[in-house]
Amino acid sequence: MDSAIVGVIGGSGLYHMPSLANAREVRVDTPFGQTSGPLRVGQIDGTPVAFLARHGERHGLLPSEVPYRANIYAMKSLGVRYLLSLSAVGSLREGLRPLDMVLPDQFVDFTRQRSNSFFGRGAVAHVSMAEPVCPAVCGALARGFAATEGDGNTRLHRGGTYVCIDGPQFSTRAESNWYRSLGADVIGMTNLPEARLAREAQIAYGTLAMVTDYDCWHAREAAVTAGEAIANLRRNAERAQQVAIAAIRILGDERPASSAHTALASALVTQPDDMPPAVQNELAVLLRG
Question: How far is it, in rounded angstroms, from Cα 97 to Cα 20?
């Protein structure tokens, strides 16, 4: 089986990672169905990396159609311990401008249509999501941003709350202003249940969120369109790839410890020996640290 230490999930407009050396296509069978597409496994400066396009290489999956459980299970099966999520978001704050990047450290979940746990069917676990991202992974992304050169138009903001909605429609203006009133900073459609599942899989997770628009709350800016969002994302795509590469080098060299790596140590209510054999077999990949 091919292996990887760092996983990268590319969102809208980020369907390939050309910098992967010795890249090969890997398909992973999972108990939770097929992944969004084949994973590409290779190396960045000797660090094994697995890349997956979240929406498929031809962007054929709506946010609620993404097979989140299969994607995270496949990453864990390949040995991934650190997962970088590259995601497009709308800004809910004046100071978060289109083309800026954000490292969210909190999430609010307004999704309703998605399977958000690997557990059930006779196996119970309650992982802590108080701190939903890994500080070491976010720190590596921040250091990666600082180590790369941009055109001066992109700023990095550390911290913030990401509100996740089902989509595929963008928000109404009333919704957008309500999310602002809740204290949310950016809005997207994909990082949940992804972050929850990564924690259950004991993978350290962090998001590099790329601001493409002001959603629809801003009185002086036009409401977001898909074309505008994708155009801005493409402008930032090369920088995002550079940041990811720099972060991969840091994680590969330092292999930082993360509380996510032992998330199930105090979360399992049903012990493995008490799980139905079929479920125990399905979850064996996730139970290893």
Answer: 30
Asked if 171 and 118 count as a contact pair (C-beta separation under 8 A), the reply is: no
pLDDT at 224 over 70: no
Looking at residue 62, its amino acid is L
Any catalytic annotation for residue 215?
yes
Catalytic-role residue among 166, 185, 213, 274: 213
How would residue 193 be classed by pLDDT, with cut points 50, 70 and 90? very high
Give me the amino acid identity at 95. Answer: G
Whether 2 is a known active-site residue: answer no
For residue 186, report the phi and psi dihedrals to the nearest 5 degrees. Answer: -135, 160
Marked catalytic residue, from 151, 215, 273, 274? 215
Closest by alpha carbon to 176, among 221, 114, 208?
Answer: 221
Mean pLDDT of 104-125: 97
As a whole number, mean pLDDT of residues 77-89 equals 97
- Write out the DSSP string of 236-285: HHHHHHHHHHHHHHHHHHH----GGGGTTTTTBSS-GGGS-HHHHHHHHH
Radius of gyration for the alpha carbons in the chain, expressed in angstroms and rounded: 18
In degrees and rounded to multiples of 5, residue 29 shows phi and psi of -80, 135
Q: Give the SS3 label for residue 197.
A: helix
pLDDT of 189 strictly over 80: yes
Other Cβ atoms less than 10 A from the Cβ of 267: the count is 16
What is the SS3 assignment for 164? Answer: strand
* CA gap 111, 175 in Å, rounded: 14
- pLDDT(277) > 90: yes
Per-residue pLDDT tens digits for 132-169: 999 999 999 999 999 998 777 789 999 999 999 999 99
